[in-house]
Specification:
By secondary structure, the protein is mainly α. Helix 2 packs antiparallel against helix 3, helix 3 packs across helix 5 and helix 3 packs across helix 6. Helix content is 64%, strand content 0%. The chain has 2 domains: 104 residues, HD-domain/PDEase-like (Cyclin A, domain 1, Orthogonal Bundle), CATH 1.10.472.50; 75 residues, Methane Monooxygenase Hydroxylase, Chain G, domain 1. It is built from 9 helices and no strands.
Length: 200
């Protein structure tokens, strides 16, 4: 079925910005596989969800694209004859694992959702995360910005502070958390070096 999924999703991702393109979906998919292997987990739902999770990208409509992506995934799986439990889990995982619906006080409904969230959050931090921020900022003419951090300024520098540097505290699996801490450290080093170079 994965060949059919790949063939179906590629045209959708071509419409997205480079920071949410097909390569991003594949990276999240591979992260799911790595976590499953290291944690001895079954992650079929999370792997399918990873491929669909950003299939729709709507500018300035936070959350609506996630719901739309989940709906497309569910419809596709129904048409493929997938059982109800699986397509419902995929639909739920895509929505509740998204940063748009993130609530640190709320527990997710399944291990598959935690798998998808950890895999997606890993793709959002470290060198991958920084490259995606730079790509999105360039495509949307968002300046990188300079220290000091001003919370409400729309700059790439502030996006890293507002979102990426907070993600480390929200990982579920030990394997993902260990990798997140390494990537978090690199982002800190990058920002420290950037700050030094702007003040020399």
């Amino acid at each position: 079925m994965y060949e059919k999924i790949i063939k179906f999703i590629k045209p959708f991702y071509k419409k997205n910005t480079l920071s949410h393109d097909y390569s991003h979906a594949i990276s999240v998919y591979e992260n799911v596989k790595r976590i499953c292997k290291k944690e001895s987990l079954e992650g079929e739902v999370a792997k399918i969800s990873a491929l669909f999770h950003d299939i729709i990208q709507l500018k300035d409509k936070s959350g609506e694209d996630v719901v739309a992506s989940a709906a497309i995934a569910k419809d596709f799986l129904i048409r493929q004859g997938v059982d109800k439990e699986t397509y419902d889990q995929v639909h739920t995982s895509i929505i509740e694992s998204s940063w748009d619906f993130f609530d640190k006080s709320k527990k997710l409904s399944s291990m598959q959702s935690y798998l998808l969230r950890d895999a997606d959050f890993l793709e959002s931090i470290g060198t991958h995360g920084l490259v995606r921020v730079f790509s999105y900022s360039g495509e949307n003419r968002i300046v990188f910005g300079f220290p000091p951090f001003i919370e409400k300024e729309n700059t790439a520098y502030n996006h890293i502070n507002n979102k990426l540097l907070k993600m480390k505290d929200y990982f579920h699996f030990k394997t993902a958390l260990a990798e997140a801490e390494r990537r978090h450290k690199y982002m800190r080093q990058f920002l420290d070096q950037y700050s030094k170079e702007t003040k020399w």
